[in-house]
């Protein structure tokens, strides 16, 4: 049995409510774009690829139920409207914005065909959203395998096992399945070359402690949870071979937005001479932005920091700043950026992807 964040069949979409994990595994039906927006905003579903997939599939479900139209032009306008709502849910990850543009373009192209019909536009958008789900799973399996082999060549060329530290949740729960950074860990484990995985708690919302730890236990991967503040001592004392994290947006110069805390991990890794990798599908890359300074960083409500499961842990009256992400400068990404198309240095990324990635990503 595999962990699934998203359960989809034509006309039906369900998401695993990740706010309830690890105590409860409960799926919730998503029947409309509005419901998807609310679930994404509340972080019932989270992780850059999963956000985009749930957004697009919620539109597919609405279209399957007959929403939009009448006529191809009105349907294209409806699709565009709904997609613009979805893009507003969480601004930092590029995946939803890119998926929205690709779906809107597909709808418009279909509507421009001679003799275009509303039914054909509807079918095109639904199929395109469904293809994204399959593509993400394939990309992740490739990232896992490419990343594992690359890492083993660098960190254990003579054989032997590696120890990896990861942050936030980048696994099956954040994607269509398999995961990105956690996919690399999964592949290393399958090859019997993983000594140990360390996952950080990932304050403030604890995606590491709640979700990554859950996935690692579920997959029976040898792993240990640490608080974020233990990363430096773990690197000093636990023989960490590499740090691997995911990405919400990798821009043209390789600067990478990811869950807050990633930046400090990269600094600590550099200090200890531990290679630092980003694992992300090309759908998380945005060549339209030149540097990380241009990335909009989402700020989340203060209660995510001051409370745990609704219980206040911070002193009443204290001010709170809660940026959900930070940007790791490309020069700290010393291992490379692992994509489904290959492993690149930040400097190589633009040339490697520019033939296929639009330059107006976000
Ligand atoms: O706020 P979240 O939980 O959506 O943040 C998730 C992350 O930052 C992940 O590391 C990133 O989206 C990559 S998921 C494959």
TrEMBL record:
<keyword id="KW-0539">Nucleus</keyword>
<dbReference type="InterPro" id="IPR027363">
    <property type="entry name" value="M1Pi_N"/>
</dbReference>
<dbReference type="GO" id="GO:0005654">
    <property type="term" value="C:nucleoplasm"/>
</dbReference>
<feature type="site" description="Transition state stabilizer">
    <location>
        <position position="168"/>
    </location>
</feature>
<keyword id="KW-0486">Methionine biosynthesis</keyword>
<dbReference type="Pfam" id="PF01008">
    <property type="entry name" value="IF-2B"/>
</dbReference>
<dbReference type="InterPro" id="IPR037171">
    <property type="entry name" value="NagB/RpiA_transferase-like"/>
</dbReference>
<keyword id="KW-0028">Amino-acid biosynthesis</keyword>
<keyword id="KW-0413">Isomerase</keyword>
<dbReference type="InterPro" id="IPR011559">
    <property type="entry name" value="Initiation_fac_2B_a/b/d"/>
</dbReference>
<dbReference type="InterPro" id="IPR005251">
    <property type="entry name" value="IF-M1Pi"/>
</dbReference>
<comment type="function">
    <text>Catalyzes the interconversion of methylthioribose-1-phosphate (MTR-1-P) into methylthioribulose-1-phosphate (MTRu-1-P).</text>
</comment>
<comment type="similarity">
    <text>Belongs to the eIF-2B alpha/beta/delta subunits family. MtnA subfamily.</text>
</comment>
<comment type="pathway">
    <text>Amino-acid biosynthesis; L-methionine biosynthesis via salvage pathway; L-methionine from S-methyl-5-thio-alpha-D-ribose 1-phosphate: step 1/6.</text>
</comment>
<dbReference type="GO" id="GO:0005829">
    <property type="term" value="C:cytosol"/>
</dbReference>
<dbReference type="GO" id="GO:0019509">
    <property type="term" value="P:L-methionine salvage from methylthioadenosine"/>
</dbReference>
<protein>
    <recommendedName>
        <fullName>Methylthioribose-1-phosphate isomerase</fullName>
        <ecNumber>5.3.1.23</ecNumber>
    </recommendedName>
</protein>
<dbReference type="InterPro" id="IPR042529">
    <property type="entry name" value="IF_2B-like_C"/>
</dbReference>
<keyword id="KW-0963">Cytoplasm</keyword>
<dbReference type="InterPro" id="IPR000649">
    <property type="entry name" value="IF-2B-related"/>
</dbReference>
<comment type="function">
    <text>Acts as a component of the translation initiation factor 2B (eIF2B) complex, which catalyzes the exchange of GDP for GTP on eukaryotic initiation factor 2 (eIF2) gamma subunit. Its guanine nucleotide exchange factor activity is repressed when bound to eIF2 complex phosphorylated on the alpha subunit, thereby limiting the amount of methionyl-initiator methionine tRNA available to the ribosome and consequently global translation is repressed.</text>
</comment>
<dbReference type="GO" id="GO:0042802">
    <property type="term" value="F:identical protein binding"/>
</dbReference>
<feature type="active site" description="Proton donor">
    <location>
        <position position="248"/>
    </location>
</feature>
<dbReference type="GO" id="GO:0001650">
    <property type="term" value="C:fibrillar center"/>
</dbReference>
<dbReference type="GO" id="GO:0046523">
    <property type="term" value="F:S-methyl-5-thioribose-1-phosphate isomerase activity"/>
</dbReference>
